[in-house]
Amino acid sequence: IQTDGQRRNWFWRGYAQREDAGYRGESSFAIERELHYAEAGWQDRRWAVSLVGRRERRGDGQEDFDYVKPALTAQPHDTVSFSVRPDEEGDYGYLVRWAPHARYYVNAFSDDDRDQVEFHAALPRETRMVAGWVREEHGFERRSLLAYRETGSLRRVRYGAGVLESEGRYGWLVEAGAQLGSGLYLSAQAVDDPLEFSGNSGPTLWMNLSIDLVNTGSGFTRASYQADYSQRGSISGRLMAPPGGIDEPLEGVPIRVDGEVRAYTDSTGGFHVTGLDMGAHRLELDEENLPLDTAPARKRLGVEVAAGRSTPVQIKLERRLGFAGRVLDAEGRALAEAEVVVLDGDGEVVARSGSDSYGYFRFSELKPGRYRLQLVGEGAAVLQERTIELVDRYVFAQDLVISP
To answer: Domains in the chain, start-ordered, CATH in brackets?
Structure first.
């Protein structure tokens, strides 16, 4: 359920989503998940003050989120604007824009995952230059210098190129776009990013066709002549399988931007999110729709969206170790809410969980090694036990059957 609205200076938006355990079928291992989000506040031409609330509950024992925090977006002066907003985990991100002159401005963004600064300058002959620096949460840095030119108004033509550098590795970016006709815009971008792509997969080509038409009495025409579309950008990305590949397709994985599902991956693992405001956005996968033995190398990505451009993103997937199975009675019937405990080689409890309504349980993000899996009854009595060795794969069908 999703809603938004505005009345005079007051605005509000919100959504609620609930996923039952096993909602993708008995063999999906999908956990129970509940997500609520709401924001309400007051705004005028220069100020927007709001309260942001988010509650997320998961049925797999991972961290829950429950917060209500203030957010502020302001333009105290014609040359300065800033915003302070919580992300989906409640951590604040800070964005500052300084435009001391009509021909250049500076954007700076910082949160727990990324620090980024960009300098934009308007040069003669309708040319713009962008110099950027970014530091990721693991300490990797990237520097970039881009130049592009955009001509025309209704028949826009845009092209540009740039150089990227990270940790002594160099990459490049080339892009071009053109207005093909009324309401049709085609763009392409080729990039070899030394930070995101690490030189493993080589250059990547992104292509995008935007169609913005309305049917009038005399035929189709462009739906909007407003400049607002030129102030928005998009994100194009792809899921990259771990070494050795995976057996299951990467189709239908929800892509969340700022906590909201905005796109789904296609049969090749690609996705495209359009209509995003300029600035930094939080990108993450809905991991419940990934193969069970696969997880993103990074839980969240900070992505800077520029006006009129598609920002390329590559999400690397990696193997995660763990095991899954069912709790069954002697006749093969599923037992719900049975307590399952995992002990390491030293006999220490490292995880515990209850079986879902189909009897399924699972444990993920375990280290390689030998584990004992126990079914525990009343009074901590061990009803069933088995030993599992984790090496380099997720282990399935580790069922626990209660003897009669």
So the answer is: 1-88 (no CATH), 89-319 (2.60.40.10), 322-401 (2.60.40.10)
